[in-house]
């Protein structure tokens, strides 16, 4: 059963002239006085946060990313003019997928590496690493020192080759590494069923 909530003395409180009650707003003076009472704790937490922020900024290497969208306009007029839209859309789909595969191809990556001389650019080949990856590399090096990997059968010792052959092999391997790195870092995909 529901009972009405009537005051016993028949007096009703007057509506306050304030539209906002004490529970509805934040008392800034009260917060500042609480922070002043705990000034040491606030200062220590702020100093720790500042130290961790500076440490993060100093140990994280800068990374750069570029994005672009390419509109393929080859068959747009054909799509409007032709009656059979299904065959045109299948041709368009295959053409767009072919162009995406061309962007991923090793031949295009080799042309870009040769034109931009990425195989000679150490910032591209060996980008800076973070402090955590440097520490992990140091630990791996120590483990490899105490537990060396077995020699692989069929490999040639580069130090026994003449200087010209060695330099050619190093240049070729740098170029191949740059091509592979560029291929792995390029991402091309179609946006939905669009021409982009």
Would you write up a description of this structure?
By secondary structure, the protein is mainly alpha-helical. Among the domains are: 28-59; 76-149 and 160-185, no CATH class. It contains eight helices and no strands. The model has no long low-confidence stretch (mean pLDDT 78).
What structural category characterises the helix and strand content? mainly alpha
Which bin fits the share of residues in helices? 55-70%
Radius of gyration: 34 Å
| Helical run tally | 8
How would you classify the quaternary structure? Answer: single chain
Give the biggest sheet.
none
* Number of distinct beta strands: 0
Strand percent estimate: under 5%
**Mean pLDDT across every amino acid position:** 78
Give the low-pLDDT segments.
Answer: none
CA-based shape: flat
| Topology as a string of helices (H) and strands (E) | HHHHHHHH
End-to-end separation in angstroms reads 66 Å
Would you kindly provide a brief summary of this structure?
The chain is an all-alpha fold and 196 residues long.
